[in-house]
Design goal:
Elements lengths: L1 E6 L7 H16 L3 E6 L5 H12 L5 H25 L4 E4 L1 H4 L1 E3 L8 E4 L2 H8 L3 E5 L2 E3 L5 E3 L5 H11 L4 E6 L20 E3 H9 L7 H10 L3 E5 L7 E4 L12 E17 L4 H11 L7 E3 L6 E9 L3 H10 L1 H4 L3 E14 L9 H11 L6 E5 L2 E7 L3 H12 L3
Parallel strand pairs: 1-2, 1-9, 2-6, 3-6, 9-11, 10-12
Antiparallel strand pairs: 4-5, 7-8, 11-12, 13-15, 13-16, 14-15, 16-18, 17-18
Helix pairs in contact: 1-3, 2-3, 6-8, 7-8, 12-13
Bound molecules: aspartic acid and magnesium ion.
Length: 402
């Protein structure tokens, strides 16, 4: 059996944890499996590297940022190989160049295009444990790229797909996927399994356990994932395709995103093409828009509001202000004190009334809803950030049985 095992930063934060990971992998190896280990940078290394960069040059180029950030993962794979060496187990560390993991050219947010698997297979055939840097790739200029924060999960899934691995295990500092963040909702429970689509919604909504592109890729290539703790033997959560007849929970998770902001473009002419112009401007600057609300026109005027990430507020407002005349807007408003609370569940597709039940829970909690958006398996409400935690608990109580 070929197993890909990915360990996050907390799992390799110090010497003791590095040896803990090495021991777990050694058990697998000794039972006869081929073992590929993917690692993140140790502890908060990536954050520290970013701070160092900002201190030298707050506008450092993305290319140089990637050059810097990729060193974090290179440190952990080398140290891990040394730990195996100390235990007398043959192992080798490889970076993105040595594998070769090819990505698109975009620094800071590259995507995998292709992974050469020959070198890895050769090393495995020599009965070595192969330890690979997460989060990084090589672009067509032979430059180092990174995949975006949290991208090591995506490296693990991409490798599992390229190597046709029999298992892909994501080890982290929590026991699996929970129905909500247990720090906000103490009653939250660990799920035994969850579908790719549900996980994708939760990951995108800010449940930070998995990088959302890793889930996208797992779904696309049919890689079944297990998310579990590196610190104990608890079973974890399986992320997989929805099985016909599988009793899907009505709601499998409640998520919150506190990095949301609302922009309102007010007093627009009620004519065709306005929405296109607004969202095209934002799209060209790579600003992701989420919940969108257009008011019913009045006196030939209408308003369009939408949510974006707080990191993009300044840029979006400046852009809209510059184009105010062309958009026929009277004014632009922004509010960065909002949050999004969402319920996700594959069972929603065939069960009406989930939205009503969610709104009832919020009403009973005295919480005002500012905007609403839905997908087939998700309902999202925008509310004031100060209400977010309370709303999470109210909604969770409503849907998740004790
Ligand atoms: N080290 C990178 C980060 O902190 C990638 C990862 O951890 O997955 O974002
Ligand atoms: Mg992570």
């Amino acid at each position: 059996m070929l197993v890909v095992k990915k360990f996050g930063g907390t799992s390799v934060a110090d010497k003791e944890r590095i040896f803990n990971v090495a021991k777990r992998c050694a058990e697998d190896y000794k039972s006869g499996n081929d073992v590929v280990v993917v690692l993140s940078a140790m502890g908060k290394t990536t954050d520290h590297l970013i701070e160092m960069a900002k201190d030298i040059n707050p506008n450092a180029s993305k290319r140089e940022m990637d050059m810097l950030l990729a060193t974090g993962e290179q440190t952990s794979v080398a140290l891990m190989a040394m730990a195996f060496g100390a235990m007398g187990i043959p192992a080798i560390s490889l970076n993105a160049f040595q594998v070769v993991m090819h990505t698109t050219k975009k620094y800071g947010n590259a995507r995998f295009k292709r992974i050469d698997s020959e070198r890895i297979h050769n090393e495995l055939d020599d009965r070595k444990i192969v330890i690979i840097t997460g989060f990084q790739g090589i672009n067509k200029y032979d430059d180092i790229t990174t995949l975006g924060r949290g991208g090591s999960d995506t490296t693990a899934v991409a490798l599992a797909a390229a190597l046709h691995a029999d298992a892909c295990e994501i080890y982290t500092d929590v026991d699996g996927i929970y129905t909500a963040d247990p720090r906000i909702v103490p009653k939250a429970k660990k799920l035994e399994e969850i579908t790719y689509d549900e996980m994708l919604e939760l990951a995108t909504l800010g449940a930070k356990v998995l990088h959302n592109r890793s889930v996208e890729m797992a779904k696309k290539y049919g890689v079944q994932l297990v998310v579990r703790s590196s610190l104990n033997e608890t079973e974890g959560t399986v992320v997989k395709e929805e099985v016909e007849g599988m009793e899907s929970m009505l709601v499998s998770g409640v998520a919150v995103d506190k990095n949301a902001a609302r922009i309102a473009v007010i007093g627009l002419q009620n004519q065709p093409g306005i929405a296109f112009k607004i969202f095209n401007l934002l799209a060209k600057k790579n600003i992701n828009v989420d919940v969108i609300l257009q008011s019913i026109g009045r006196d030939d005027k209408k308003d369009i509001s939408f949510t974006i990430s707080r990191d993009d507020v300044e840029e979006a407002v400046a852009l809209l202000e510059q184009n105010k005349a062309r958009l026929t807007a009277e004014r632009i408003e922004s509010d960065a004190t909002v949050a999004k609370v969402s319920v996700v569940g594959a069972g929603m597709q065939s069960n009406p009334g989930v939205a009503a039940a969610m709104f009832e829970a919020l009403f009973n909690a005295g919480i005002n809803i500012r905007m609403i958006a839905t997908s087939e398996i998700r309902i999202t409400v925008l509310l004031d950030e100060v209400d977010a935690d309370y709303a999470m608990r109210a909604v969770h109580d409503k849907f998740i049985p004790e």
